[in-house]
Amino acid sequence: MMEQKVVSILEDKIKHISSNSGEIYLVGPIKLPIHLGEETAIFQWYCWLLCKEDLHDIEGIIHKLSAVNLAEMQQSSVLVYGDFEHADDAFIRMHSICHTGDIFGSKRCDCGFQLHQSLQMIVSHGAGALFYLANHEGRGIGLFSKAMAYLLQEDGYDTVEANLNLGFVDDARNYGDAIRVLRSLREKQVKLITNNPKKLDALRSAGLEVADRIPLWGDVSEYNEKYLQTKVNRSGHLLSGCPEQ
Predict the structure, then answer these.
(1) Which of 203, 177, 180, 179 is nearest to 192 (CA)?
(2) How far apart are CA 84 and CA 119, in angstroms?
(3) Where are the alpha helices (DSSP H) in 126-174?
C-alpha cells in the first residue's frame, strides 16, 4: 500500500489530458534552475507521457509505470518561464530533440544553438515555454536512422535526399500531443519561435491563435552551411531574420 504522504504530494501535480492516440499524463510543475550565459533562470519543468489506457488514480499510475522500463522509452518535456498562463504576451518554441546537437554540441546542425537561444529569448521576453519533443529526433526518423542519414550526407546527399532514400518522408513530425499540452497550460495567444512554416501551420490548423512568428537564425559555419541551405531550398524554411539574407 502506498504511503498517503506520497499520494498527497503527487495527486495535484499530475494532470490528465485526453488524446486521439491515448491518454496524456502531465507531471509538474517542478522548479528547474537553468544556467544561461552568466545567469541562472528559474523555469518550471513539466514532463508528459502518452499511455494507451486510462489510469484512474495516482496509485494506479505509479503501479503501472513501475512495471514498465520507461528508461527505454522517450518522454517529452516543456520548460515554462514566468506567468505563462496569464501573461498577455508569451513566446513558445516547439523544439525537436537533437541528440548530436543539443547534447554533444555538434556543428552539423543549428539545433543546439536554437535550443539555448530560444531559452534566452523566452527569459528576456518575460514569459514563455519551450516544448522539448523527444520523439522528433531526425525529423521523426529516430536516432539510429539519423546516423544512417548522416553517412549518406557525408557522401553528398542533402538532408531531404538522405531521408527519402532511407524510405522516410522529409519530415515525419507530429505536434498533436504537444499542442494538447500547450492548451492545458495556456489559453491566450502565443508567439512562435521558428523558421519552419510547418510548425506555424500545425498550431493554426489546431485552432491556436498565433500572433506572430519570431525567426531564429544563427551559428552558421562551414559545417552546417549546406544543411541550412537545404532547410530553405528543400524544406521551405523562411529566410526572414537570417543574418545572411
Answers:
(1) 203
(2) 14
(3) 137-140, 143-154, 159-165
- SS3 of 172, please? coil
Please state whether the predicted TM-score (pTM) of the whole model is above 0.90: no
Residue 30: all three cell numbers together: 517542478
Question: Among 47, 61, 85, which residue's Cα sits nearest to residue 186?
Answer: 85
Domains annotated for the chain, with CATH where assigned, are: 4-136+173-233 (3.40.50.10990)
Which residue, among 216, 176, 214, 217, has the nearest Cα to 192 in the 3D structure? 214
Q: Each residue of 90-138: pLDDT tens digit?
A: 999 999 999 989 998 888 888 999 999 999 999 999 999 999 999 899 8
Query: What is the 3-state secondary structure of 184-245?
Result: HHCCCCEEEECCCHHHHHHHHHCCCCEEEEECCCCCCCCCCHHHHHHHHHCCCCCCCCCCCC
Q: Write the single-letter amino acid at 17.
A: I
Catalytic residues: 171, 173
| Cell matching residue 91 | 513566446
Per-residue pLDDT, 245: 38
CA dist list (Å): 23 to 17, 18, 80, 129, 139: 6, 5, 22, 22, 24
User: Residue 111's Cα: distance from chain center in Å?
Assistant: 11
